[in-house]
Amino acid sequence: MNALGLSMIVKMGCICTRESLNINGIKYVVKERQGEGGFSTVDLIENKGTKRKYALKRILCHSLEDQKVAMEEISYCKKIRHPNIIELVDSTFKGSADIVVNATSEAFLVLPYYRRGTLHDYLTLRSFNKNYLDLREILRLFTDICQAVKYLHDFSPEPLAHRDLKVGNVCLNDDMVPVLMDLGSCAPARVQVCGAQDAQKLQDLAAERCSMTYRAPELFHVESYCVIDQRTDIWSLGCVLFALCYFKSPYDFVYEKGDSVNLAVISGTVHFPEETPFDEDVHDLILFMLKVNPAERPFIDNVLERSRHLQNKIEAVV
């Protein structure tokens, strides 16, 4: 190799060099970076032996508290078994987080790879030409997502809430079946808030972990003495159904205009497009879930019942 060629490799980096990982005795090679979030990154990896592709979620932990949160996510992934919720293939920790400055650990979660990407990706592509989904397809996707949520809300010994339901956290498999992912925000559904300190802690956690344009009103301003329950997810489901119809959450549109999402959510403002292929039944189902007062919001069984009623109504007309 001549000096110029060596110089170019030094400057640009050898593109043929890929990171290798050993996770519990199985060797993987990192193919490419798929995404980055505030707390984690996701890479496409390949099993060196089988050549099968997976998604690798890496969570960098800067403290024992970070490490505890990552361990809780792994624990939930191991316990939860449902066809519409992502499965954990393997996991491990490397390093050790402690109070020593710059001491970090990293959690590795090996997950199935979905080549179709997320529901957000799918809706974004369709939005370019306002290529609306057929209502039967919308309700099929929505009821499958609701089945995943029902599994969490009915979980034993303690009901769980996902707390970050959004179209970006739903993958699509090869058969276009939705698979709920990212259990990093998953937590016991029922939270008793006793005092201003508890309220502020939950509010700060929601600001970190729950996407603003899908976040329930009671998580924007947590009252000092209240009970938060699984109906935070029902609000998010209302935003998901709106996005299935119109490609984005109703509060994504608010955010894009530069208006206050906080005020729009607290006031319960929902604007439907004037030109729409969907009738009042669909809008009523969305508004059924987007009740500002959580006590007026339905539980998941009520949402599923109403969704199936609408499905049956459509099938009867065809």
Automatic annotation (TrEMBL):
Assigned EC number:
2.7.11.1
Keywords (A to Z) from UniProt: ATP-binding, Kinase, Nucleotide-binding, Serine/threonine-protein kinase, Transferase
**Ranges of residues in domain Protein kinase:** 28-310
Q: What class of enzyme is it?
A: transferase
Any single Gene Ontology cellular-component annotation = Golgi apparatus
Q: Taxonomically, which superkingdom?
A: Eukaryota
Nuclease: present as a keyword of the record?
Answer: no
- The reply on keyword Transcription is no
A single Gene Ontology MF term assigned here is: protein serine/threonine kinase activity
Which Pfam families does this one have?
Pkinase
Q: Which reaction does it catalyse?
A: L-threonyl-[protein] + ATP = O-phospho-L-threonyl-[protein] + ADP + H(+); L-seryl-[protein] + ATP = O-phospho-L-seryl-[protein] + ADP + H(+)
Name it.
non-specific serine/threonine protein kinase
